[in-house]
Amino acid sequence: MKRTLSSALGPRTAAATRPTIKDVAARCGVHPSTVSRALSPAMKHLVAADVAERIQAAANALGYRLNMAAKGLRTGRSGLIGVLAPDIADPGFPPVLSGIADQLNAQGYATIVVDVGRDGSEQDLVDRLIARGVDGLVLATVTLRDDVVQHCLDAAPPVVLVNRVDAAGLLPSAASDDAAGMRLAVEHLVALGHQRIGHIAGPQHISTGARRRGGFEASVRVAGLAARHTPVEVAETYTRAAGREAALRLLARRTRPTAIVAANDLLALGVYDALAAAGLACPGDVSVVGHNDMPFVDMVSPPLTTVRIAQRDMGEAAARLLLDRLAGRETTTDHIVLAPELVIRGSTIARGPDRSAPPR
Amino acid sequence: MKRTLSSALGPRTAAATRPTIKDVAARCGVHPSTVSRALSPAMKHLVAADVAERIQAAANALGYRLNMAAKGLRTGRSGLIGVLAPDIADPGFPPVLSGIADQLNAQGYATIVVDVGRDGSEQDLVDRLIARGVDGLVLATVTLRDDVVQHCLDAAPPVVLVNRVDAAGLLPSAASDDAAGMRLAVEHLVALGHQRIGHIAGPQHISTGARRRGGFEASVRVAGLAARHTPVEVAETYTRAAGREAALRLLARRTRPTAIVAANDLLALGVYDALAAAGLACPGDVSVVGHNDMPFVDMVSPPLTTVRIAQRDMGEAAARLLLDRLAGRETTTDHIVLAPELVIRGSTIARGPDRSAPPR
DNA sequence: ATGAAAGCGCTAACAG
DNA sequence: CTGTTAGCGCTTTCAT
What is the assigned CATH class of domain B78-175+311-339? Predict the structure, then answer.
């Protein structure tokens, strides 16, 4: 019955000012502060059980809902966490985001996710979020030496990094073990008999790009492969197109690799494109390994062998790291490293140990 | 002096209380309200140019940032828009979200995106968002006859639907023309000579599922195909697994279709799985058409023929619809319908008109 | 166990 | 043009 009037009049009578703590108080004949106490789980014990019940009932009847902005203004905590994402459309990101949101929501926080386009600077976005009163920040966008790191250290609420780290390791982070992932990939290829393995590296100003490249170089060295048999080409962005171009450069080299390890799956798909353009077969002529195991790479042709990283766990870990900071528990590890896993599919195949690739 | 204690204790000296409008005022020897005016684009004309400049400078020097919570409390507008998503991890959603966020951010709004898991009810999530003071809501989750619709009409700020609509068309919406999409798919197959075409329908309580099915049935009727040659199996969820099961049921029928139209790409990939399990080739034995053109379906094997929907535009349209409502401009169209487009790839192939499929 | 009073940071009348 | 005043809805001492 209650809403008869509100729906009866005009279309936008809607602005129907929500009931406040005062309305509830009036209805119960108590003081607003008593209502505040009764409705706050932490303070409820300070109010008589029967009164508390009456208040609760009245609140329900009125459809009362706490005004978070007012509460936040008073307490200095908004219950909002800002998340900076590099590109929401990147298929790798949603699981991370989902992990973050789950953990945070469970503790009553809401997340406000901002996609960092090419326009608005990261700094500015951070400041905007701070203006919104966020209690903490999760950055998935940070580059290796990023001004935003110092900015955050200076003026920001607690901040954690996810998927990427800063060069100096100043900010706590949750990320996959990039070097270990590359080791997995290289060892797999070496075990299959590959002796000439190329690498399509990601952007070198991003930790994943730099560290995966480092992991690749270390692993091939350990395997005893010569540097000239393990060429590296850098893709400037994590895109299929950039992967294609870099792969084309790699294939144009004097001695063609029999296998290519890409710094991520998008790049690996670009390698597929390049191979097709060059009239080469995968895995017949060239084996390919990706990184991330993004959705549906098991459906491409051939199904992509790749390094699976624990994206959801990564998000959850980052959120927990932040939650620790928010609760004043700064004791936990600062840098959480998650173990990757090799997923072998159809894009890698054994190579006869002494068969040499056609020169040209 | 008052807060000396609060910052004295605690480990987080960091809490370096942000400068307020008062601090800026003190530094300039003016009244806080003058600062408020000088810093508000809309009220700036009320203050002397030189004073405004001084204030601006002081604000910058202090690193002052407007406290949105306080402003919101005062003005009753938070600048926050709530978005309810069915599943952030669904590859189809990010472009929509991106379109929404772009439009909204441009107008100074921030979006808070909530993923509706299987737990928290939609109603409750909406209420939570309202408690956060959102100025408007975008729902991508609504089912055909959803209680949340009435709930929103009653008590909520302006609401728009995206991608889905409610049965009665009560709420404004931006969505793809589902029926037209199916027509495109069916006409394409008929033109290729297919006479027995099956449909894997999506969940029937969701508008896309129901309307695409309706569109399918209408189109095959127009094409003069008999109902028994155009069987429909419903998948309970938009997942690859459900698509596989439904396709298996379809293939088990007495007369096997020579083509299958799936209600979305995820289901279509499930059809691929089912075909593989049944030892059937696509497109050799059965042609397949998807819907949505989600990322990378051009890379699967065979590349999927599908109906591309204007996801980003859809998001943008929904945001503009909401912006109109927020500005009190209710004049625009209530239901925006976007035209889909057929993308022909390798999963559909011509079928000789009189060749009949092997009985069993 | 409850009421009174103050104030978080900001904006919007209303004076001058 | 600028200062004064009041108060958005809530929490939190401090008194009873």
Answer: alpha beta
